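Example for tutorial group B:
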């Protein structure tokens, strides 16, 4: 096992994500219950069995603008992301689409905890989503229940045919197989995501392949 990079910084980031989730469990609604369930799956923290190294993904060029697009509610989390942001396992995990050639260069996911993440778990995923400005993340779905916490950038979120402009500090819950999409504004979007439920291994798929 080779471990490089600032592991203390990575662990600080995971701790700050846990604090953000915990703050939302006060309200025992569907989002609060999902946050509580995810937190229970992170105790104990899955074992670190992979590496973190400097990312070369083109989407990381959007990070600096994202760091300027947070809110007072997300300052602490952004402060935890910033020192390790370039060392996260950013990747675009969908097949490329002919009808949306820019997606692979403008969207990336950095999974910290999950089946293929440095912290191995087959029961829960925790990561970051980064989407460049003026990008449509097309309709997609997955078996996992998904909780998002927007850290930076206001964007339009679409689920079940309903569009909402969502701001940093807000949570969004997607049930299993709910079709959802995002449209960013002039700001990039940076968000924490979690996956839980019966199947966190099957990937997300686009509703219509290009
Ligand atoms: Fe999703």
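The residue assignment follows.
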């Amino acid at each position: 096992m080779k471990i490089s990079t600032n592991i203390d910084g990575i662990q600080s980031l995971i701790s700050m994500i846990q604090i953000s989730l915990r703050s939302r469990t006060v309200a025992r609604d569907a989002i609060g219950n999902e946050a509580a369930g995810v937190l229970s799956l992170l105790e104990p923290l899955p074992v670190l069995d992979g590496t973190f190294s400097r990312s070369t993904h083109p989407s990381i060029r959007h990070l600096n603008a994202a760091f300027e697009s947070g809110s007072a509610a997300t300052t602490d989390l952004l402060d935890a992301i910033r020192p390790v942001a370039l060392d996260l396992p950013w990747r675009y995990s969908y097949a490329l689409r002919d009808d949306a050639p820019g997606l692979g260069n403008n969207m990336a996911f950095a999974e910290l905890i999950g089946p293929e993440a440095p912290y191995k778990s087959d029961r829960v995923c925790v990561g970051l989503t980064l989407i460049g400005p003026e990008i449509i993340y097309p309709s997609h779905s997955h078996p996992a229940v998904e909780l998002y916490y927007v850290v930076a950038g206001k964007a339009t979120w679409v689920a079940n045919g309903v569009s909402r402009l969502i701001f940093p500090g807000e949570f969004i819950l997607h049930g299993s197989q709910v079709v959802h999409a995002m449209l960013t504004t002039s700001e990039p979007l940076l968000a924490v995501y979690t996956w839980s439920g019966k199947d966190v291994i099957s990937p997300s798929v686009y509703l219509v392949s290009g």
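The mean pLDDT is 95. Compare this with the pattern of hydrophobic and polar residues in the output above.
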